[in-house]
């Protein structure tokens, strides 16, 4: 039971502590017979900051969906936070997403006409937390990501970088162990992108496991660990 | 964040989704309404028009019925009339001269009065009016007890007294006075080739509309100046309320013992009631049209919801990613549909109640808006909203989160 040092991948053999994300011989075939993943296996320990990198069509988005429990693998085992996904009902998957996984998307998916504060507070909605507490926690997290002066601003009043910060705040407001970021800098200019990566580093340093999915080699190179995917197979990064 | 990395085991048993509170359910359900007010207004308007139409029709009909009941209570339902029928050859069978007197002898009859029609007498404003322009005013010889029996009230002046009944004096029905352009007593009119003085003008007579268009003169004056044969053409009677049917049974035989089948007996309040019932039957037709409008409104709501689900795939996917269950997505869109519809229902009920109140007031009716109509109206819209939202909500819930997030 040795907590992994923040921001650094453990170097020794597999620790006794169960992995946060574990894939074993995962195959995935889309309806119509397109085989997008071949025998993929890897694990992500708590406290890691890593990139899953590959060109478009490589299967990395499918990996995001499987790790995010938005889809279930055709065969093989996916374990998230100790749960075998294949054995969970739809409702338990929803509960697992609510508690264990925070999502950040390239397109932000913020609600128009709703303040930054309420957008972030919605991240706690499905945890059954009362509204007052949701808003209080949302305000705290927004201040942490440097948007304390933007609480009442609506998405159209924010810059792209600010929008992504709001989205990240929404993803981590419930304090999930795993943050999944899908091309988090894809819609941003270089400066905003760099500040978003910096924010992800800070969150990781504070204990959140961060998994970034990207086709951006430069972004991937800046992270401590990379898993490269090509044509549905892992080409680099496993085993560590 | 102060959480330190470490083992955090969640057993499957603890992985139960949390329920949203009612307030949160309503808040989430109204997100779509708050962000697209124009579309919400238009969809709700469709529902509102249907409900407004139905509430207005029901309320106008209820107000009209209340006004009718009040009128019937004031005129009474215990009046029976006797008119000449036809004999076996099809000729009109005149009533005996003493018919009114005979009727008065029936025990439960409280009073009776007769009128006799003077077919040849014409009425003109003055003696310069061409003969053809007689305006359809009938001249009737009337017994002095007529107002008491029929329940006539004077709009101006007074009814004929004993002396006037023998001299050329006339009382005009409300329509007759209007047609002649006479508003005050004292005027002279040209009646049956001589001048008669108007002593009074009657108010509308709901139970005896034939009097509205009549010029009424005394029984004796009719005989003296116009050659009246003294045969009544209509007898009005009032009877104790409980004995109306009984009297009705013996009236014909009393008036004309030799040929009771040549006498027609009727109850004018029945005619009023039948007319009112016919109006009410028309009401159900109008309510039906309102119901169709409501259905069309429901289709509008369904259409709005289908579009909302298509447009908000991203939001649906995001909510699933945040941990919403399929049931919670379904509830969200169902709630939205019911709220949208209820919005129209409440607006429409208010609109309909307002419109019918305005109409009732303009008719000098008491305003009656049945609460059940408002309740049923709003309830029906909510049911329609639920029905209209069901399919879109199920579709939204079935959307795979992966597909929803990758959509436009």
Provide a descriptive summary of the structure in words.
The complex is a heterodimer of chains A (240) and B (408). In chain A, the strands form two sheets. Chain A has a six-stranded mixed sheet, with helices on both faces. In chain A, strands 2-1-4-5 form a four-stranded antiparallel sheet, covered by helices on one side. Chain A has helices at 60-67, 90-100, 116-121, 131-144, 160-172, 190-205, 217-221; strands spanning 21-30, 34-44, 49-53, 75-80, 83-84, 101-104, 178-182, 209-214, 225-230, 233-236. Chain A is globular. In chain A, a hairpin with a 3-residue loop joins strand 1 (21-30) and strand 2. Chain A has 240 residues and is of the alpha/beta class. Chain A has one domain (21-236): P-loop containing nucleotide triphosphate hydrolases (Rossmann fold). In chain A, helix 4 packs across helix 5 and helix 5 packs parallel to helix 6. In chain A, 30% of the residues lie in helices and 25% in strands. The longest helix of chain A has 16 residues, at 190-205. Chain A has seven helices and ten strands. In chain B, helix 3 (37-75) crosses helix 11 (326-362). Chain B is built from 13 helices and eleven strands. Chain B is 53% helix and 14% strand. In chain B, strands 1, 2, 3, 4, 5, 6, 7, 8, 9, 10 and 11 form an eleven-stranded mixed sheet that branches. Chain B has helices at residues 22-29, 31-35, 37-75, 99-104, 146-150, 174-180, 219-226, 244-255, 268-311, 313-322, 326-362, 371-398, 401-406; strands spanning 79-84, 109-118, 123-124, 138-142, 154-157, 169-172, 188-191, 194-202, 214-218, 234-239, 263-266. In chain B, strand 7 (188-191) and strand 8 (194-202) form a beta hairpin. Chain B folds into two domains: 22-71 and 274-406, no CATH class; 78-266, no CATH class. Chain B is an alpha+beta fold. Classes of the chains: A alpha/beta (240), B alpha+beta (408). At the A-B interface, helix 2 of A face helix 1, helix 2, helix 10, helix 11 and helix 13 of B.
């Amino acid at each position: 039971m040795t907590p992994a040092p923040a921001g650094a991948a453990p170097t020794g053999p597999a620790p006794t502590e169960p992995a946060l994300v574990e894939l074993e011989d995962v195959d995935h075939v889309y309806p119509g017979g397109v085989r997008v993943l071949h025998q993929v296996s890897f694990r992500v320990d708590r406290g890691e900051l890593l990139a899953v990198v590959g060109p478009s069509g490589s299967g990395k988005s499918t990996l995001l969906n499987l790790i995010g429990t938005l889809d279930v693998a055709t065969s093989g085992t996916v374990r998230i936070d100790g749960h075998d996904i294949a054995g969970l009902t739809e409702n338990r998957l929803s509960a697992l997403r609510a508690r264990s996984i925070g999502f950040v998307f390239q397109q932000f998916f913020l609600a128009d006409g709703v303040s930054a504060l309420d957008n972030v507070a919605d991240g706690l909605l499905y945890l059954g937390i009362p509204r007052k507490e949701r808003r209080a926690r949302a305000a705290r997290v927004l201040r942490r990501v440097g948007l304390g002066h933007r609480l009442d601003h609506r998405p159209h009043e924010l810059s792209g970088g600010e929008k992504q910060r709001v989205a990240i705040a929404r993803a981590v407001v419930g304090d999930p162990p795993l943050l999944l970021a899908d091309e988090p800098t894809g819609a941003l200019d270089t400066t905003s992108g760099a500040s978003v990566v910096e924010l992800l580093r800070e969150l990781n340093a504070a204990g959140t496991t961060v998994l970034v999915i990207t086709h951006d080699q430069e972004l991937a190179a800046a992270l401590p660990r990379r898993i490269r995917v090509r044509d549905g197979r892992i080409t680099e990064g496993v085993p560590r | 964040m102060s959480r330190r990395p470490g083992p955090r085991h969640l057993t499957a048993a603890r992985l139960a989704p949390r329920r949203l509170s009612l307030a949160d359910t309503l808040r989430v359900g109204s997100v779509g309404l708050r962000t697209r007010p124009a579309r919400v207004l238009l969809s709700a308007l469709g529902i509102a028009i249907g409900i407004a139409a139905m509430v207005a029709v029901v309320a106008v009909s209820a107000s009209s019925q209340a006004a009718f009941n009040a009128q019937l209570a004031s005129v009474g339902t215990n009046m029976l009339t006797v008119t000449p029928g036809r004999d076996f050859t099809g000729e009109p069978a005149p009533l005996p001269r003493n018919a009114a007197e005979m009727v008065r002898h029936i025990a439960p009859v409280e009073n009776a009065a007769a009128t006799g029609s003077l077919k040849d007498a014409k009425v003109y404003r003055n003696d310069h009016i061409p003969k053809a322009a007689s305006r359809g005013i009938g001249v009737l010889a009337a017994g002095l007890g007529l107002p008491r029996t029929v329940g006539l009230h004077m709009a101006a002046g007074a009814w004929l007294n004993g002396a006037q009944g023998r001299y050329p004096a006339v009382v005009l029905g409300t329509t007759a006075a209007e047609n002649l352009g006479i508003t005050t007593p004292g005027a002279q009119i040209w009646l049956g080739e001589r001048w008669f003085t108007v002593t009074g003008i009657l108010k509308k007579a709901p139970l005896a509309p034939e009097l509205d268009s009549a010029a009424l003169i005394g029984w004796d004056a009719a005989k003296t100046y116009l050659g009246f044969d003294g045969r009544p053409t209509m007898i009005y009677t009032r009877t104790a309320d409980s004995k109306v049917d009984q009297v009705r049974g013996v009236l014909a035989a009393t008036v004309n013992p030799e040929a009771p089948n040549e006498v027609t007996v009727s109850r004018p309040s029945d005619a009023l009631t039948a007319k009112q019932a016919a109006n009410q039957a028309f009401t159900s037709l109008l309510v039906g049209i309102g119901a169709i409008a409501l259905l069309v409104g429901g289709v509008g709501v369904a259409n709005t919801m289908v579009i909302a689900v298509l447009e908000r795939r991203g939001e649906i996917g995001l909510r699933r990613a945040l941990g919403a269950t399929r049931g919670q997505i379904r509830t969200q869109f169902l709630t939205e549909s019911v709220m949208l519809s209820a919005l129209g229902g409440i607006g429409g009920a208010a609109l309909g109640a307002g419109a019918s109140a305005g109409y009732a007031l303009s008719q000098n009716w008491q305003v009656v808006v049945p609460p059940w109509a408002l309740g049923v109206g709003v309830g029906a819209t909510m049911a329609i909203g639920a029905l209209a939202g069901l399919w879109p909500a199920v579709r939204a819930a079935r959307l795979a989160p992966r597909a929803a997030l990758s959509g436009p």
